[in-house]
Amino acid sequence: MTTTTHERLKTVIAKSLNRNIVAEGIKGENMVDELGMTSVDALEVLIHVEHEFGIFIDDADLSQALVASLDRLAKYVDEKMPA
Description:
mainly alpha
């Protein structure tokens, strides 16, 4: 898991939520509460993550739980990235 992945994810999250969120201000420890994400917001974020990173997120993984923590999401993305 790289800092670059974290920074890219913060940018994607800020853009996909369409709110006045500054990417650098995202702490990422509990993003659902921190950013007031609904389940629809979480799906929107995950769709944007798929496009940004060129990965496919399995249907079974599409949930708020995956976007709850920036570290968890970054680890998932890194595991899905082609070698």
